[in-house]
Write a structure and sequence with these properties.
single chain, 134 residues, alpha+beta, 3 helices, 5 strands, binds adenosine monophosphate, binds zinc ion
Length: 134
């Protein structure tokens, strides 16, 4: 059983901040920034791609609600809402979860997107192919 399933089952302790029939949210043990929280479905899904779309559509209002509470309590000035999907993307716990990472001026968290160059033709072709595969 994975570590988040054990948390859901109460086999290992967590700092719970939210619970309903389908979801649990608890403080991330790393506290990348103060208030860093994880939201997980109670049922095990490896990642976003295998998550039931029903649950996918239920999770964002919960993320929003928790972020609003964190903002009120910690005075966070912004948030990074993250999901690492797959080992290559940095996922280390293979139970789908959303990170709510509050941001503060001069905090130590750093997220930076690098740029790559593609021609207009390549981008048009890519967009068309993705669209036609939906
Ligand atoms: P990811 O790398 O996206 O899979 O994120 C996994 C997260 O789970 C990391 O930020 C860890 O700090 C966090 N984590 C691992 N074990 C626990 C635990 N027992 N309680 C709370 N958070 C945990
Ligand atoms: Zn699990």
């Amino acid at each position: 059983m994975c570590i988040f399933c054990k948390i859901v089952n109460g086999e290992i302790p967590s700092y719970k901040v939210y619970e309903d029939e389908n979801f649990l949210a608890f403080l991330d043990i790393s506290q990348t920034t103060k208030g860093h929280t994880l939201v997980v479905p109670k049922r095990h899904y490896d990642n976003l791609l295998s998550l039931e779309s029903d649950l996918a559509s239920q999770i964002f209002p919960i993320v929003q609600k928790i972020a609003l509470s964190i903002k009120e309590i910690t005075k966070a000035e912004g948030f990074n809402i993250l999901n690492n999907c797959g080992e290559v993307a940095g996922q280390s716990v293979m139970h789908f979860h959303i990170h709510i990472i509050p941001r503060y001026a001069n905090d130590s968290f750093n997220i930076q997107f690098s740029s790559n160059s593609f021609t207009n033709e390549e981008l048009n072709d890519l967009a068309e192919k993705i669209k036609n595969t939906l």
